[in-house]
Design a protein that fits this description.
Layout: H1 3-13, H2 23-32, E1 36-39, E2 44-49, E3 52-57, H3 67-79
Antiparallel strand pairs: 1-2, 2-3
Helix pairs in contact: 1-2
Length: 84
């Protein structure tokens, strides 16, 4: 995991939730952690990391995540035992 990935992880963990994290940075973090990403229908994206699966929607038309998605991503990373 490089410095950019660590910065993205730090921003996900930050409270209150941020609403300015680019989705592509989150996908890059998941891949750097050894996770898998597969496309679903429409804007759905399936994430798989450390035996945990989740489905998210890629944000559009803006390319940044909202606070609810950041909160869900934090929960996903806790279940995958990336953060405590």
């Amino acid at each position: 995991m490089n410095r950019k990935h660590q910065k993205t992880l730090d921003r996900i963990v930050e409270k209150p939730e941020r609403s300015d994290i680019p989705w592509k940075d989150i996908e890059g973090l998941i891949i750097a952690l050894g996770g898998e990403i597969s496309e679903g229908r429409g804007s759905r994206v399936r994430l798989y990391l450390n035996g945990v699966r989740a489905v998210f929607h890629r944000p559009h038309p803006k390319r940044v995540t909202d606070k609810g998605a950041v909160s869900s991503m934090r929960r996903f990373l806790k279940e995958a035992e990336v953060i405590s």
